[in-house]
Each structure stands twice: as C-alpha cells, then as structure tokens.
Amino acid sequence: MTLEKLYMWEAKLFAEVTVEEKLRVLYERGYKVLKKLDQTGAEPSKIYEAEAVVKLHLSKINVAVRAVETISMRIHKIRDEELWFQVIEIINGFKEMWRFLAKCHHKQFRAITRSKSCVHIVEKGSSSRKATQKVEEQIRRYRESLRGYIDAHRGFVKLLNEWLNRNITEDDETEIEAPEIFRVCSEWLREIESVEEVKVLSAVEEMRLIFQGLGFKQIEEEKQRMRTERLCKELEKKTNGAEEILGTAFVFPASDSGPAKKMMMEPEFRK
C-alpha cells in the first residue's frame, strides 16, 4: 500500500515537473521575443503584450514549482514515516525467520553428531529408485529456490537504496544526521552484499550429487539383479531339460520278454 502511494505521488510529481519544463521553454522563448522587441524599439503595445505573456508564463512556473515542492514534501513524509516503519518490520521479520531456522538447523546438527551410527537399509526395486530420484529433484529445487531468494533479496535492497539516493534532497545532505531510513537501508545493503552464498549452494549441490550417484548405483544394481534372475531362469530351464532327458533314458520297456526281462531275472536284480 505504501509503495502504491509513493508511485501515485511520484507520477504526479513527474507530471508537474514536465509541465514546469514546458513552461520554462515558453517563458524563455517569450523573454527572447520581449528582449528583441525592446532592443529594436517596437511599439509599446507590442512590448506590453509580450511582457504580459512572459509574466503569465512566470506565474504558471511559480505555481508549478510550489506544486512540485508540495508533492516532494508529501513523498518525503511517506518515506520517513510509513516506509521507514515498514522497512523496520521487514528487517525484524527476516531476523526472526533466520533465528528460527538457525535454531532448527542447530538441533538437527546436534542430533546427527550425537548419533553413534546412521544405518538405513534401502529397499531394492523401482520404488526405491523413484524415491531417490524424488529426493534428488527436491534438493535441486531447494538449491534453485535458495539462490533465487538470495538474488531477489539482494536485488530488492539494492533497488530500494537506489530509489532513496535518487530522492535525496539538499536538506538531507546538509543535516548532521540523515533520516534513519537512509542509514538503515545502506547498512542492510552492505550486509546482504557481504553474504557468501557460494559455500551453501555448493554444499547443497554436493548433497544432490550424492543422491544422483546413489540413483545410478541403484539402476546398476537393478540391471544386475535382472540379469542374475534371467540367468537363473535359463539355468533352471536347462536343468529341468537335462533331468527330463536323463529320466527318459532310465525308463524300461513294459515287455515281459527279451533282454530286459532276462536282466531282471539275474541274481543281482533279485537281491
């Protein structure tokens, strides 16, 4: 809401400044005409007419200047009162958010360091591989979001400081202490520019690569498992075929005569 109000007043300020510039052009043009008429000794009526036009432009310029000053004062009031308090609220909100996140990360770190072992049995199969891929994708998105957040935060503070510097006045420069919003936003910009996000983003990327490697390993293990199952099935099929062949070879004919019956009558078989 405050930024919308500032935008509205700045649009009015731009319109008034544009009008003032056009009036100054007309004023300078009329003044040159008046000066030329005076130097050439023109008729008094023409001089008076040109002089009236110049005075009219000058009065309009004075009105436009007062309008610009009034709008500028209004913008400065919104800046030093409403925007100032909202900037403080934003900074305090960021402080609370990062304090809470730091506390959570500290608890997680202590829980990990106190653990004597961290063993996790990964199930085999496509479901485990899909879970690994999902974790890797979430880590990748988290890294992109974190980088986008830092860039957006830094860009916002930078643009805010640029806007403040464009709207600084001579009174602000000559005061012993500039308005608080200038000092706070300047310090805010220095702090956010000093943030080194490379280490954090690199650590997140290393974690993603670990899960990516785990996913590749699971794929290879799945291929090896399928290859082993296929070979086992082929071996089982060949074994069954061999057993059938051997079983057929030891089956005797059902006839009561011939060599087979003679062999059955031998003493060794009778035993």
Structure description:
- The C terminus is likely disordered.
- The longest helix has 71 residues.
- With 271 residues, this protein is mainly alpha-helical.
- The chain is built from eight helices and no strands.
- Helix 1 runs antiparallel to helix 2, helix 3 packs antiparallel against helix 5 and helix 3 packs antiparallel against helix 6.
- It has two domains: 79 residues; 116 residues.
- 86% of the residues lie in helices and 0% in strands.
- It comes from Arabis nemorensis.
- This is DUF632 domain-containing protein.
- It holds the Pfam family DUF632.
- InterPro entries: DUF632.
Observed structural traits:
about 0% strand, 8 helices, disordered C terminus, 2 domains, about 270 residues, mainly alpha
